[in-house]
Design goal:
Blueprint lengths: L11 H13 L12 E10 L6 E7 L10 E2 L2 E3 L15 H7 L8 H19 L1 E3 L1 E2 L12 H6 L1 E2 L6 E7 L8 E9 L3 E4 L10 E8 H4 L6 H15 L9 E6 L2 E6 L1
Parallel strand pairs: 1-9, 8-12
Antiparallel strand pairs: 1-2, 1-4, 2-3, 2-11, 5-10, 6-7, 8-9, 12-13
Helix pairs in contact: 2-3
Length: 257
Amino acid sequence: MSDTSGDPPIEGGIAANRVERLTKTIRDQSFPNLKPRDSATLILIDRTESVPKVLLGRRHERHRFMPGKFVFPGGRIEPADREMATLSALHDRHVARLTTKVRHPSAAKAAGFALAAIRETYEETGLMLGRPSASPIATPPGPWEAFAKAGIVPDLSAMHFIARAITPPKRPRRFDSRFFAADIAAIGHRADGFVGPDKELVELVWLPITEARRLDMPGITAIALEELQDRMASGMSYDHPAPLYRMLHKRFVREVL
C-alpha cells in the first residue's frame, strides 16, 4: 500500500518491505476475537555521543506475553492518565494524528496516550520524564503520586508521536499501540530498583539503532525503530508522517495518519 499524504512519504519500496515483513510475523489466529486495548510505549534517545542510542528492556522469561523479548517501556492506558497535569501540551500535529481514526477524539485523549507512555516508562525503568515544578501539583491516585513526591511535572512538548500499530485479529492479546519518542534531556528524575531479576524488565540496554535491531524483539518493535530512524533523518520534523500499521484482508497495511 502506498503512502498518500501531504507530508513527504518514505520510499514506496521501503514501506512495502516493512508491511511484508510484518505480515510474515503473523502467528496463530485461532483465538476468540478481542477488542484491542489502547496502549502506549516510549523510545528514549541518547544523543550525547556521535552515534545516537535507544533504550530497550528485556522482559522476564517467566512472562506469558513476549517472554525474554527486548521491548520499549510501555503498557495499557489507564483512566488516571488523562487526569495528570502537564507543563505543556503535545504539538498540534501530533494531536491531529493521535486523534485520527479513534472513537471520541479529543486533545485530552491524545495527551492521555503520551502520559501513559511516560507513566509506564517510570514504572518499568525508574526514569521520570518531565521538569521540576516550584509549586506542589495535584495528581490522580496511584503511580502519578511519585511524580508529585519528586516534584516533577510531565512536559508533553518533549514527546514525538512516531507510529501506531494494532495487533491482528484473533490473537490471545490485542493492543492498539502508540509509539512515542523523547530525548534523554527530557528525563527529570531517576530512581533505582525498578529493573532486576524479579521485575518486569530484567535488564536495560542502550544501543545504536542498527545494533538494537539485531536483538530478539517483536516485529513491530523493529519496524518502530526504522520509523524512528526516518524521523530522526528529518530532524524530528513535526511535518514527518506517522504511520498506522494494521491488518486488512489477512495482510498488514501501512497508512499515513
